[in-house]
Every structure is written in structure tokens, then in C-alpha cells.
Design a protein that fits this description.
Shape: elongated
Distance between the termini: 17 Å
Largest sheet: 4 strands, antiparallel
Helix content: 10-25%
Strand content: 25-35%
Order of helices and strands: HHHEEEE
Strand order of the largest sheet: 3-2-1-4
Radius of gyration: 14 Å
Length: 84
């Protein structure tokens, strides 16, 4: 199960520094993905991209594609080779 894989990753020394910022549920995306990209658009703001490869750092940039979402959030997981 996902919980079992998460606990195994913790025991293997996984980087847990992002859990406090995003929660265990979000961090669990890195069990299957090398990189996570979150594209988000609020009605009263520009569209932004949050991107991280789980190394404890992330970037937030204005989306160069413009306001393609209208509003809402899209999460893109770049799957690890062994998860395909």
C-alpha cells in the first residue's frame, strides 16, 4: 500500500523536510514521481507554476504559457521509470 511504501521510504532515510509545508499526502507523490509540477490560477491573479524534484527546494514562476487554466489547479507527476 502507499502507507507501507511511505514508511519504508522514511526508514530508508527519505528527505522529509517538505512534509511540514505540504503534508504527508502531498509528499507521498514522490513515492511514484521524480518531479511534481503544480500549475495554479486564482480568478484575481496570474497563473503560476510550482515545481520540485523533492530535494528540499522548489521554484515558483509565472506560467510562460499564460492563463491557460482559467481558474483552478493542475498537478503533473513525472513518474519514476519503475512506476511506468
Amino acid at each position: 500500500s502507499g502507507t507501507k511504501q511511505f514508511m519504508e521510504a522514511v526508514q530508508a532515510g527519505a528527505d522529509l523536510s517538505m512534509i511540514g509545508q505540504f503534508g504527508v499526502g502531498f509528499y507521498s507523490a514522490y513515492l511514484v514521481a521524480d518531479k511534481v509540477v503544480v500549475t495554479s490560477k486564482h480568478n484575481d491573479d496570474e497563473q503560476y507554476i510550482w515545481e520540485s524534484a523533492a530535494g528540499g527546494s522548489f521554484t515558483v514562476t509565472r506560467d510562460p504559457a499564460g492563463n491557460t487554466l482559467g481558474r483552478g489547479t493542475k498537478i503533473t507527476l513525472h513518474l519514476k521509470d519503475d512506476q511506468l
